[in-house]
């Protein structure tokens, strides 16, 4: 893009940029405004842009009576639990798939990838019934366990791309020094791939946080996660839009912050490490 | 120095057992197999039984292939397959093309472009179910922003609203998906285009290649692999869509937005017909596996 541009070319560029922001960020702003609007302006025509911000929707959803506050905590428990349980399974696998020329390595990688593309809805009914049969229905454990079908394959792929970047020579030096596999993994590899582990874990957190399908059939009233809990506002006498927006905005914030922090790695995370970005 | 010393100290270099890498992989594979095979076997068995969960907590009688017959005869499956394929093909194509256009814009050296790029990905970070809430609000026929904008522009709208009319509902659902996922294509394709070497482009320019030729003959072939990967990932996600439909239209009006994912959801979790749902599970798993196989063959042939 070294060539100098004409004035009209630049003007077009800025207009297009503005249009992008209006189209892709505008709806988010509009939804956030819904959460702080007075109820009589929810559907005012023409739309009302000037209003006295009100925290009533947030107060109702998260303070008094605060029905959504336990759901926020549930979302955190399930997503954090899913990430923590996933690490001891995915890290060794990612390491082995990065370091060893195994027969069938490609097929194993593709098998994990296939799981990421499997239709979650196909598993909802069996999981729901099997969880009941196992006495796990409504528990955090059931949601954390089932989330592994997403977090483990995702983390293996993404983590492997980070381990690939750690020079193998360091491990070989440690091996020649007589280090066993455990020592090499914990003293050499782990410290070097910690940044990759953190990035992977944060994306896996988002993955699990945003998944509504599994909690929809596994949670009960006490363990419902935030997106599922938000559904409660539909179907009662009229849709209470302010409360939906307040709860949904709270659900939107953690993934957005994580993506802002991980800006450099967003492309890699979204493509499971297959595009470096 | 240390290397030499330790070599001398242990002349027989410790060799790692060949089974070791497999031991490292095994826990994840076993866990996933357990989580996948149980439900699949469970569904396979129940697909041959009549079982309505509202009537009985256990299967109510062996009925052979009736569930499969029903899935096909009620045009439940084929109709939904048609809707799903249409939505998936159009959605993936539109998102790819729009994303490519935006990626080219993001490459331009304008003030504020970096910030725009960082903000642009925000729709993709939102849970699909929340995107459903967001668009249901914006589509509301009584005071929603989108009908208001369209009407102000003089575009006539169906009386039942964009989501309530069978001629527009599918496109309205798809629009929400396009809004959420076009940034995904834009950001990934931007990253891929950024890696196209400038000297290659410069050489082509000197040869008098137009901007369009530059794109179709040089840039696109060079980012082919990345493009295939993102198209594949998105294609499958779109094919599996159901939560957006649950929130926006519940498959309606009529069957106009009943995707495969939604009809399965409806059979099992709305009508509690576990037998039918199980048969559909297997039909969907077979279709999805066939598509994944095809894609993987083309996109990941040279995976190392």
Automatic annotation (TrEMBL), chain A:
Keywords: Cell membrane, Membrane, Sugar transport, Transmembrane, Transmembrane helix, Transport. It is a multi-pass membrane protein. It is found in: Cell membrane. Residues 72-262 form the ABC transmembrane type-1 domain. InterPro entries: BP-dep_ABC_trans_perm (IPR050901), MetI-like (IPR000515), MetI-like_sf (IPR035906). SUPFAM superfamilies: MetI-like. Coiled coil: none annotated. GO terms for cellular component: plasma membrane. Pfam families: BPD_transp_1. The chain crosses the membrane at residues 12-36, 76-97, 109-134, 140-159, 180-207, 241-262. GO terms for biological process: transmembrane transport. Belongs to the binding-protein-dependent transport system permease family. This is Multiple sugar transport system permease protein.
TrEMBL record, chain B:
The keyword Transport applies. InterPro entries: MetI-like (IPR000515), MetI-like_sf (IPR035906). It is found in: Cell membrane. It is a multi-pass membrane protein. PROSITE patterns: ABC_TM1 (PS50928). Keywords: Cell membrane, Membrane, Sugar transport, Transmembrane, Transmembrane helix, Transport. GO terms for biological process: transmembrane transport. It comes from the Bacteria. SUPFAM superfamilies: MetI-like. GO terms for cellular component: plasma membrane. Residues 81-293 form the ABC transmembrane type-1 domain. The chain crosses the membrane at residues 20-44, 85-107, 119-139, 227-248, 279-300. Belongs to the binding-protein-dependent transport system permease family. This is Multiple sugar transport system permease protein.
């Amino acid at each position: 893009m070294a060539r100098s541009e004409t004035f009209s070319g630049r003007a077009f560029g800025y207009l297009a940029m503005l249009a992008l922001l209006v189209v892709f960020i505008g709806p988010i702003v509009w939804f956030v405004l819904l959460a702080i609007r007075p109820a009589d302006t929810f559907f005012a025509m023409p739309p009302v842009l000037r209003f006295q911000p009100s925290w009533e929707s947030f107060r109702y959803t998260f303070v008094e009576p605060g029905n959504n506050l336990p759901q926020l905590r549930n979302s955190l428990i399930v997503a954090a639990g899913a990430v923590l349980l996933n690490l001891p399974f995915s890290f060794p696998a990612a390491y082995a798939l990065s370091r060893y020329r195994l027969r069938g390595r490609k097929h194993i990688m593709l098998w994990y990838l296939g799981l990421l593309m499997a239709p979650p809805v196909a598993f909802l009914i069996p999981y729901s019934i099997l969880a009941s049969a196992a006495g796990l229905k409504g528990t955090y454990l059931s949601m954390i366990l089932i989330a592994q079908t997403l977090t483990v394959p995702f983390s293996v792929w993404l983590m492997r791309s980070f381990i690939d970047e750690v020079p193998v020579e360091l491990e070989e030096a440690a091996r020649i020094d007589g280090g066993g596999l455990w020592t090499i993994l914990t003293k050499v590899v782990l410290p070097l791939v910690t940044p990759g582990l953190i990035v992977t874990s944060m994306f896996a957190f988002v993955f699990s946080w945003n998944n509504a399908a599994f909690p929809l059939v596994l949670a009960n009233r006490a363990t419902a996660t935030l997106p599922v809990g938000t559904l409660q506002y539909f179907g009662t006498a009229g849709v209470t839009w302010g409360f939906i927006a307040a709860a949904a905005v709270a659900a939107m914030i953690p993934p957005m912050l994580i993506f802002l922090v991980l800006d450099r790695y967003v492309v890699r995370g979204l493509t499971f490490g297959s595009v470096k970005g | 120095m240390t290397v030499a010393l330790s070599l001398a100290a242990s002349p027989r270099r410790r060799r790692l057992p060949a089974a070791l890498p497999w031991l490292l992989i095994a826990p994840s594979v076993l866990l996933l197999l357990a989580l996948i095979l149980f439900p699949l076997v469970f569904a396979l068995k129940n697909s041959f039984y009549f079982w309505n969960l509202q009537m009985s907590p256990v299967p109510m009688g062996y009925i052979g292939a009736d569930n499969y017959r029903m899935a096909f005869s009620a045009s439940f499956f084929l109709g939904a397959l048609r809707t799903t394929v249409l939505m998936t093909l159009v959605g993936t194509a539109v998102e790819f093309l729009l994303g490519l256009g935006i990626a080219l814009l993001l490459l331009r050296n304008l003030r504020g472009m970096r910030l725009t790029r960082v903000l642009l990905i925000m729709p993709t970070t939102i849970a699909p179910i929340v995107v459903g809430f967001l668009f249901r609000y914006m589509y509301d026929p009584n005071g929603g922003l989108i009908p208001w904008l369209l009407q102000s522009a003089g575009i006539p709208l169906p009386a039942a609203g964009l989501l309530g009319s069978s001629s527009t509902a599918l496109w309205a659902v798809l629009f929400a998906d396009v809004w959420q996922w076009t940034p995904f294509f834009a950001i990934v394709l931007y990253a891929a285009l950024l890696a196209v070497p400038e000297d290659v482009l410069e050489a082509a320019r000197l040869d008098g290649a137009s901007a369009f030729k530059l794109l179709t003959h040089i840039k696109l072939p060079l980012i082919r692999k990345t493009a295939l990967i993102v198209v594949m990932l998105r294609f499958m996600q779109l094919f599996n869509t159901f939560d957006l439909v649950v929130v926006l239209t519940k498959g309606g009006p009529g069957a106009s937005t009943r995707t495969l994912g939604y009809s399965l959801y409806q059979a099992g979790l709305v009508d509690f017909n576990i037998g039918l749902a199980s048969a559909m599970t297997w039909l969907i798993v077979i279709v999805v596996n066939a598509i994944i196989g095809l894609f993987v063959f083309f996109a990941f042939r040279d995976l190392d």
